[in-house]
Input
Amino acid sequence: MRIAVLDCCCPNPEELSRFASVGDLIIDWLQPHMRQAELVRIDAWGGETLPKSDDFDGFIVSGSELGVYDETNWMPPVRQLLLDIRDARRPVFGICFGHQLMADTYGGKAEKIKATYAAGSRRFQQAGNLPDGSGGEQFDAYVLHGDQVTSVPPGAMVTCAAGHCPVGALAYDFPAMSVQFHPEYERAYVEAVIDLMDGDLLKGREVADSHKSMETAQVARDLYAREVAQFLREGVSGREFVERSRP
Output
């Protein structure tokens, strides 16, 4: 089995040089749960030729420093590939920007948050089986985002949410799932990015508050990894996968 990891992040600046690329961080997070699979990083940001939808058995779309509204040479081809992936019914999983780009491409909308940039850790709640959708388990996850999904695409359902983010994750009626948070990141990486944002996207107390949010958070190192690996192996619709996994 071969999985393409579309890395939509810029190359690491000097301040993050001790860390692997975001695409490789995703591979390090997922590979222990897909030991028989080949995970291949594709440098989408750098303009590497994108694969065709039938070149791989599944796809992952990473986060990015950019928003879905930014004009770049590499983003339109990624959008087209997402449409081709949907038509070919190949499974695809999106993270942060990937979550937003999928929603925006598949008929929803993503835009900039008017509130403070979300950085650090946040508590999310899975959608449950109660009539109002509540009752699901809660979990902590790392976040780094100034944009979010504001309109859910047709055929998709929200599978988790946080206080600052009503659309924390989506499952589609074709083989696609996505999350706003970053299951692939470790605390040291998030802390380094927060420090890098000091005086830019984060100002004053926001930096300290972002660091403080992680002090008592319990973020699992393999957060969502088993579920994503199983989803990519099965290739069923996101909605079917989520509904079948609920207790």
Remarks:
- The longest strand covers residues 118-126.
- Helices lie at 22-30, 75-88, 97-105, 187-197, 205-212, 225-234, 238-245.
- DSSP finds seven helices and eleven strands in the chain.
- The chain has one domain: 2-245.
